[in-house]
UniProtKB/TrEMBL annotation:
<comment type="similarity">
    <text>Belongs to the lycopene cyclase family.</text>
</comment>
<dbReference type="Pfam" id="PF05834">
    <property type="entry name" value="Lycopene_cycl"/>
</dbReference>
<protein>
    <recommendedName>
        <fullName>Lycopene cyclase</fullName>
    </recommendedName>
</protein>
<dbReference type="InterPro" id="IPR008461">
    <property type="entry name" value="CrtY"/>
</dbReference>
<dbReference type="InterPro" id="IPR010108">
    <property type="entry name" value="Lycopene_cyclase_b/e"/>
</dbReference>
<dbReference type="InterPro" id="IPR036188">
    <property type="entry name" value="FAD/NAD-bd_sf"/>
</dbReference>
Length: 385
């Protein structure tokens, strides 16, 4: 049947994390709903690894995420020039393959790939190939777009999933190895061991600029592997990206600027952890809110649901954005690692609540207590948003 002859209850533009999780939860909540995902690229879910800490999501969310979890570890490791620490916090990841398989197997969700959208209206889409789609509710999950309502820094990375000639010896993920040369801001290596011989090696930068040099980063990664005695036999997969790190945000202005013809979700709605860039916990929150909505399934009704999430999340994250301003504006780029080195020396429960975006007043006081790892004059200038 031609797309122009189709009518859906809900359509998602962009087949990324937030769209796919929301479509799955919406279908579970409304078994009779007809849902479609339109993706401009060749495949929904792209080429990604989405990680999260155990306490980041609720027990209920762990239950429905379980079929999509590709790997789980019971501990995680951080390495800094002054110390190495193992944290007893579970860590998990979804992959494009595991999420894509769930969506494609779901009844009532139709996937259209290589179908870019030319225009979005509150009750449907116009496709670039001239087709039209009718839908009562339209979600826009096409990824981050800069806005005058926010200032951002950048987290940019290149990851190589490699097969080693011999076991690599990693027992747990290395969330940060900051013993590497500090260049272009805060630089660290991130490691996910997928099997005794397979590991994702990712070089990440907290940088003022968004330029990414994949060839340089790949050379750095290969040098790191060689220094650890790992002989790379095969590069199984490459993954790269540039993520926003929020320095300031006027959520009310952001919402006014977002077109009223669709329900913005995911990075399009600036929903991500301001400091870490992790997007899965907020995507889970979005999916839960959409599924819990019992009113009419319309663009207008769901915009009110997402507006509430955007405003409340922005208010809760004021402290986290202030920390980002201290990191980017008060710390010298080559010394930004000192901020993280100090942070990871704090209590494990505080670290868990920080990643979950739920630091308590006591946590905030503890983070700011003592001599700051940045010049105090510059730190004071970063207080106000």
């Amino acid at each position: 049947m031609p797309v122009s002859d189709m009518n859906f209850d809900a359509v998602f533009v962009g087949g990324g994390l937030a769209s796919c999780l929301s479509a799955l939860r919406l279908r579970a909540a409304r078994p009779d709903a007809r849902i479609a995902i339109f993706e401009a690229g060749p495949a929904i879910c792209g080429n990604h690894t989405w990680s999260f800490h155990g306490p980041d999501v609720s027990a209920e969310a762990h239950g429905w995420l379980a079929p999509m979890v590709a790997h789980r570890w019971e501990r995680q490791h951080v390495i800094f020039p002054r110390y190495s620490r193992m944290l007893e916090t579970p860590y998990m990841c979804l992959t494009s393959e595991t999420l894509r398989a769930q969506v494609r197997a779901a009844e009532g969700i139709e996937v259209f790939e290589s179908r870019p959208v030319a225009a979005i209206a509150a009750e449907g889409l116009t496709l670039e190939d001239g087709g039209s789609v009718a839908a009562a509710c339209v979600f826009d999950g096409r990824g981050f777009a800069p806005s005058p309502a926010s200032e951002i820094g950048f987290q940019k990375f290149l990851g190589l999933e490699v097969e080693c000639a011999a076991p690599h010896g990693l027992e747990a993920p290395v969330i940060m190895d900051a013993t590497v040369p500090q260049r272009d801001g805060y630089c660290f290596i991130y490691l996910l061991p997928f099997s005794p011989t397979r590991v994702l090696i990712e070089e990440t930068y907290y940088s003022d600029g968004h330029d990414l040099s994949p060839q340089v980063l790949e050379e750095n990664i290969r040098g790191y592997a060689a220094a650890r005695g790992w002989q790379i036999e095969t590069v199984v997969r490459r993954e790269q990206g540039v993520l926003p790190i929020a320095l300031t945000l006027d959520a009310e202005a952001l919402w006014r600027d977002l077109p009223g013809t669709a329900v913005p979700i995911g990075l399009r709605a600036h929903l991500f952890h301001p400091v870490t860039g992790y997007s899965l916990p907020t995507a889970v929150d979005t999916a839960g809110r959409i599924a819990a909505h019992t009113g009419p399934l319309t663009t207008g009704a769901l915009r009110a649901v997402l507006q509430a999430q955007v405003i409340s999340t922005a208010g809760r994250n004021v402290f986290l954005r202030m920390l980002n301003r201290m990191l980017f504006r008060a710390a010298e780029p080559e010394k930004r690692y000192l901020v993280l080195q100090r942070f990871y020396g704090l209590r494990e429960g505080l670290i868990e609540r920080f990643y979950a975006g739920r630091p308590t007043l006591a946590d905030k006081a503890r983070i700011l207590a003592g001599k700051p790892p940045v010049p105090i004059g510059k730190a004071m200038g970063c207080i106000r948003e």
